[in-house]
């Protein structure tokens, strides 16, 4: 006779619904393999009167204590979302000796180190595969499969909403507002899209990836972040002419004794695999001394792909940990070294300026850049998007420190013929144009 493994779930929305939907088939397969039974005993929701497919009234509760005090529940799946009360509930579950599986990037990015410690002290574990990249397995590989490598960089497209918007802009020559409203009408963007379009969601996920890849405890608010609201139709036109597209790229690079991390709209060479990751897909590229480069691509969100990651964690727990007693991913050894200011990081840059169409302007701009050691690699001049006697000037630079670019731009702004400094985006990769 096998044993019953009691599961509690906090939340029954998109992801919780996906878990409820996938669980019956998984239960059967698991029973056939092990003779053990997975049983979803309690599900915490706000509104217990709402009809929920696959759940009976007796399973629903609006009281967290009913989950915590139920001794039959060994594993709790947290799919509530937001920082609180999710974080407090996870902590209570761990303290009550329950294993936790969470899809919550905000909680893991802000409180991951503390929660892993609480799990460790209570001889249980917290798993969080679904917190980054939805259905893409990435937390597991970072914790286990790359263990023999010294990892040197993480380059990722980890927000499906912004990738959808930028793909639409790239394909359709449409404005940010139009692409956003299409994303909202398809349910890919929230009515308040700030967390996605300002790069906050991506910064949470990057912080989690950094802690696993490099052993650094990264404060998500210390990440150099630039959202996509300012990306314009013509930026795509110019980027395409130069052989690039634009993606919201999350990047972490190991420097000598620190890391540099950023989330920014970035020009990516059209021939690179990351440039072809379109729509709501996510991609995570890892570099290490033994593996060289590995890229994971897949659905970064959605009810079923995310349920796949959540349930993979549940299976890992029941197969390899519940029966063997204590298990914990310790973050006791995480270094709290600060993130290196990006001003020291070198990149090539794309600059878009609106200038008066008069003799000598380009020479003055080149001089301002040159004074800071920034040299121009290529230039496009176009009157298509400007008014009156102005033209748009798009420059790409050779490798330069961000601090040099920013101080050069301060000088450029003072040139009389320069009307506006539009976007400044890094260009991915070190090869020259
Ligand atoms: N959606 C995705 O594609 C996706 C992908 C990867 C990761 N995630 C993460 O998964 C988590 C859940 O996302 P979701 O899209 O499933 O959210 P959702 O659709 O908004 O569902 C949230 C669920 O939690 C319940 N809930 C929220 N606050 C509660 C509270 N204070 N007390 C009791 N119940 C509460 C809600 O109850 P009611 O139903 O009664 O309102 C609802 O069932 C988030 O951390 C999200 O970042 C989501």
Residues in helices, as a percent range: 25-40%
Low-pLDDT regions: 325-333
Classify the secondary structure makeup into a structural class.
alpha/beta
Continuous helix count = 13
What is the CATH topology assignment of the largest domain?
Dihydrodipicolinate Reductase, domain 2
Anisotropy-based shape: elongated
Provide mean pLDDT, rounded: 92
Strand content: 25-35%
Bound molecules: NADP nicotinamide-adenine-dinucleotide phosphate
Radius of gyration, taken over Cα atoms and rounded to an integer in Å: 24 Å
Cα separation of the termini: 67 Å
**Main sheet summary:** 6 strands, parallel
Query: What's the β-strand tally?
Result: 17
CATH class categorisation of the largest domain? Alpha Beta
SSE topology string: EHEEHEHEHEHEHHHHEHEEEEHEHEEEHE
CATH superfamily of the largest domain: Dihydrodipicolinate Reductase, domain 2
Number of domains: 3
Main-sheet strand order equals 3-2-1-4-5-6
CATH architecture of the largest domain: 2-Layer Sandwich
Describe what this molecule looks like in 3D.
This protein has 433 residues and is α/β, with parallel strands linked by helices. The protein folds into three domains: 4-132 and 303-324, Rossmann fold, CATH 3.40.50; 139-299, 2-Layer Sandwich (Dihydrodipicolinate Reductase, domain 2), CATH 3.30.360.10; 343-427, ACT domain (Alpha-Beta Plaits, 2-Layer Sandwich). The chain is 35% helix and 26% strand. The protein contains 13 helices and 17 strands. The protein has helices at residues 14-34, 64-68, 86-95, 105-121, 139-145, 160-172, 176-185, 194-197, 200-214, 233-242, 303-320, 361-371, 402-413; strands at residues 4-10, 37-44, 60-61, 73-78, 99-102, 126-127, 151-157, 224-225, 244-254, 259-269, 281-288, 292-299, 346-356, 376-382, 390-397, 400-401, 418-427. The strands form three sheets. The chain has a six-stranded parallel β-sheet with strand order 3-2-1-4-5-6, with helices on both faces. A six-stranded mixed β-sheet has the order 8-10-9-7-11-12. Strands 13, 14, 15, 16 and 17 form a five-stranded antiparallel β-sheet that branches. Strand 11 (281-288) and strand 12 (292-299) form a beta hairpin. Helix 1 (14-34) packs parallel to helix 11 (303-320), helix 3 (86-95) runs parallel beside helix 4 and helix 12 (361-371) runs antiparallel to helix 13 (402-413). The chain is elongated. The termini are far apart. Residues 325-333 have low confidence and may be disordered.
């Amino acid at each position: 006779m096998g044993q019953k493994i009691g599961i509690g779930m906090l939340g029954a929305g998109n992801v919780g619904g996906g878990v409820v939907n996938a669980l019956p088939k998984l239960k059967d397969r698991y029973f056939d393999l092990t003779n053990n039974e997975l049983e979803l005993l309690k599900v915490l929701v706000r509104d217990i009167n709402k009809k929920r497919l696959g759940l009976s009234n007796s399973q629903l509760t609006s009281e967290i204590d009913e989950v915590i005090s139920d001794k039959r529940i060994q594993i709790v799946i947290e799919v509530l979302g937001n920082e609180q009360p999710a974080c407090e509930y996870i902590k209570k579950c761990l303290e009550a000796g329950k294993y936790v599986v969470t899809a919550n990037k905000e909680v893991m990015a802000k409180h991951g180190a503390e929660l892993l410690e609480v799990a460790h002290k209570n001889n249980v574990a917290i798993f969080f595969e679904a917190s980054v990249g939805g259905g893409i397995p990435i937390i597991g590989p970072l914790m286990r499969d790359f263990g023999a490598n010294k990892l040197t960089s993480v380059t990722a497209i980890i927000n499906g909403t912004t990738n959808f918007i930028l793909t639409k802009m790239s394909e359709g020559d449409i404005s940010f507002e139009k692409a956003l409203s299409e994303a909202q009408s398809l349910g890919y963007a929230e009515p308040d899209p700030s967390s996605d379009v300002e790069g906050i969601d991506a910064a949470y996920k990057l912080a989690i990836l950094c802690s696993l890849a490099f052993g650094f405890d990264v404060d998500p608010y210390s990440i150099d972040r630039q959202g996509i609201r300012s990306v314009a139709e013509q930026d795509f036109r110019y980027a395409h002419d130069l052989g690039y597209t634009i993606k919201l790229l999350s990047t972490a690079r190991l420097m000598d004794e620190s890391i540099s991390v950023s989330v920014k709209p970035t020009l990516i060479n059209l021939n690179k695999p990351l440039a072809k990751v379109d729509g709501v897909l996510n991609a995570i590229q890892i570099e290490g001394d033994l593996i060289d480069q590995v890229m994971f691509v897949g659905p970064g969100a959605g009810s079923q792909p995310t349920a796949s990651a959540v349930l993979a964690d549940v299976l890992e727990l029941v197969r390899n940990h519940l029966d063997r007693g204590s298990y914990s991913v310790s973050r006791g050894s995480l270094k709290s070294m600060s993130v290196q200011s990006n001003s020291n990081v070198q990149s090539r840059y794309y600059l878009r300026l609106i200038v008066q169409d008069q003799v000598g302007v380009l020479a003055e701009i080149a001089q301002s850049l040159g004074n800071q050691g920034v040299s121009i690699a290529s230039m496009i001049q176009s009157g298509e998007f400007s008014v009156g006697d102005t033209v748009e000037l798009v420059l790409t630079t050779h490798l330069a420190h961000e601090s040099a670019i920013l101080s050069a731009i301060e000088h450029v702004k003072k040139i009389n013929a320069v009307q506006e400094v539009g976007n400044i985006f890094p260009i991915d990769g070190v090869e020259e144009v």
